[in-house]
Amino acid sequence: MRRHRNVKIVATLGPASSTYDQIRALFEAGADVFRLNMSHGSHPEIAERHAIIRKIEADLGTPVCILADLQGPKLRVGVFANDDGEDLAVGASFRLDLKDAPGDASRVQLPHKEIFDALEPGAHLLVNDGKIKLRVIECGADFADCEVIVGGVISNRKGVNVPDVVLPLAALSDKDRKDLEFVCDLGVDWLALSFVQRPADVHEARELAKGRAAILSKIEKPAAVKAFDDILAVSDGIMVARGDLGVELPVQNVPPIQKRLVRACREAAKPVIVATQMLESMIESPMPTRAEVSDVATAIYEGTDAIMLSAESAAGSFPIEAVRTMDNVAAEVEADPTYTQIIEASRKAKRATVADGIVAASREIAETTDVAAICCFSQSGTTALLVSRERPRVPIIALTSVEATARRLSLSWGCNCVVVGAVDRFKSAVLAAVNAAKSEGLATQDDMVVVTAGVPFNTPGTTNILRVAPCDERKIVPADPE
Question: Which of 243, 379, 438, 458 could serve as a FRET partner for 92 with CA atoms 20 to 30 Å apart?
Fold first, then answer.
């Protein structure tokens, strides 16, 4: 199904979007990627949604990408004797400890010894999404005496963020390891890894995935921002998870971080998703706020590969409208001449390999001649990612005989993914490319396309041929190595 935009839309599934009709309607409204949130839903529910997506994929005859988002370790306080919680006043003293006893106005359990091992005087703890802020005055192996900096009501099992230290916690909890194995056996395309703090977290997930899914690191902690270059180097993609990031860092820091991370991902030719609260008001309203529309537009102007809906599509009252709003905003932004100017001004030349040179040349040819599309054969997906990094003005058609590659590439900017039979000669590749361009509605019989491929065929990393070919099959001659 042809999209009249290049940025992709990720829609989270949930109670509001769990049936065949609902999920298909989301896809037809513009969703390109479906997110399965492992924080919510049982394994049977996740398996049912996965099966529905694959049925829609088969019914429509187009690759559909599935992203499984692992929960990560959840840090929470214990329970209080008063079920309504306690009101902490600014300046008051409050203790966190390991004692398994109901909390009161002076203390509560924090059942995470790892936190106490990492804390130092002066560190801050944020409770309930930052609504309560505590500063550590004194701490030990099993306690932390704190001063209340920002007060409020603290109640049962509220979440805790520790922004000032790198916690000695793995990004994968026992639940995450079970979930990872489950969704990889199901056949998801991407794994989103929560609570990433260091490259080692990504390595652990990759070892467990064993090549069954690509690894997307969620940047939501200050430690991940500091180690971003190293994390990006070992990740297949990135999610700018602005929810926790905006809790653990001053909110004014988030926009420049978002911009920097998006540019770095594009330079590395790795897909990036901007997520969290993009159309938050549409959980309850059929219309977004002007500020939300501007937020979505800003991410698109920055060149992100994808924008994401969370509760808006999973539990909101207007999931279809939310997807359609994103689709409309994306189409309008990408039609703006300023968008093209911004995207092209931010392009950085990469000429490290032959493939870099081939894809750069394909973009330049497409923009200086009357070419309808760039068609790239890519078994592993690398060549298509390099073409996507160029952000060409013409459509990208990613052709592959590997269904898993087509699905994963559906997350990347501009990639129209088509599964074709294996080819072993360049003329066959050209014929497959022009047929795909016409069948996808991206070219006519009178157009020309740029075709990139590698010889020998079906060998990853061998992109070394570029050809401008007519879409009229009668004019295609074997001017290539057979």
Answer: 243
